[in-house]
């Protein structure tokens, strides 16, 4: 459970260079794209990650925002949830999110959130600084770069599309 709760450590995302996860170089401008180009994420997804069960739901883009939620539970108990927002910022996109404990107390301070800047958009892949979304048919794979106790890893989430 400690390992799972240490997920907050990803706020200090590593500079782990891997095929699945990319990092913006210092002074590199973010990539260009429109929130609507992420429509392939729309829907209800269920799967695994962090050694437990996960769900993620994405609503269609509206007014430069694409809103989503995530929840993670282990052994039948809710561990944490997230409120996520792909935000159009000029010619680029950022993923902004906040984490919550089961009692809805936030991990981030009230005026702060975790942000991932866009690097590149592909037809069914989106690379952000430290996180990658890749859709393969009815499967969604998310790769997240983490640093815990100085050790760099990539956590893989595997989701499958479900009906609402």
UniProtKB/TrEMBL annotation:
Residues 39-144 form the DUF6265 domain. It comes from the Bacteria. InterPro entries: DUF6265. Keywords: Signal. Residues 1-19 form the signal peptide. This is DUF6265 domain-containing protein. It comes from Algoriphagus jejuensis. The lineage of its organism: Bacteria, Pseudomonadati, Bacteroidota, Cytophagia, Cytophagales.
